[in-house]
Amino acid sequence: TNTADLRLLTTYVPGINNLDLSNLHETGRVTGMFSQPSATQAQRQGRFAALPMSYAGFARHMQEQQDIDLVVLQVSAPDRHGRCSLGPMVEFNQLALGKARRRLALINRQTPVLPGSPTVPYDTFDYVCEV
User: Fold this and answer.
1) pLDDT tens digits for range 51-68
2) pLDDT tens-digit profile of 61-116?
3) Which sign does the torsion angle of CA 118, 35, 14, 102 carry?
4) Contact present, 82 and 122 (Cβ < 8 Å)
5) Which of 25, 47, 93, 122 has its CB 3.0 to 4.6 Å from that of 3, i.e. a possible disulfide?
6) DSSP H helical segments within 5-126, as ranges?
7) Are the C-beta atoms of residues 107 and 71 closer than 8 Å to each other?
8) What angle do CA 45, 48, 52 make, to 5 degrees?
């Protein structure tokens, strides 16, 4: 399948985000900040690894130990200056953008544009999809 040998780094939060590993190819691997109850079986199989560390520790881990081939970000539609807002959930997005070889923007017109929040030039995305 398309997820063969996939290595996914995520900050999904249990109870807020659903992390369903059942559609992942058996060689796919997920690493996340938080242990996921739905990933218990995958963790036993070595397909899910939790990194119990602070946000600063996770940022260091990303910066020093991760190569990022593709970053996928949900952003607002571009404004009149051609910039897309990252909305309220910026977390590690700017760090990931700086390290990624390719960038996929999921344009969600419901993503709020918050005053003073980080934005990204639309033309820096390699791929764009409206969701």
Assistant:
1) 989 999 999 999 999 999
2) 999 999 999 999 999 999 999 999 999 878 899 999 999 999 999 999 999 999 88
3) positive
4) yes
5) 25
6) 40-44, 55-65, 93-99
7) no
8) 125
- DSSP H stretches of helix in the chain: 40-44, 55-65, 93-99
Residue 31: what are its φ and ψ, rounded to 5°? -120, 130
Q: What are phi and psi of 57, to 5 degrees?
A: -65, -40
Calpha distance 107→87 (Å, rounded):
11
**Are β-strands 83-85 and 119-121 bridged in parallel, bridged antiparallel, or unpaired?**
antiparallel
Look at the block and give the residue holding tokens 């419901």: 110
Coil, helix or strand at residue 40: helix
CB 105, CB 75: distance < 8 Å: yes
- CA distance linking residue 52 with residue 115, whole number of Å: 32
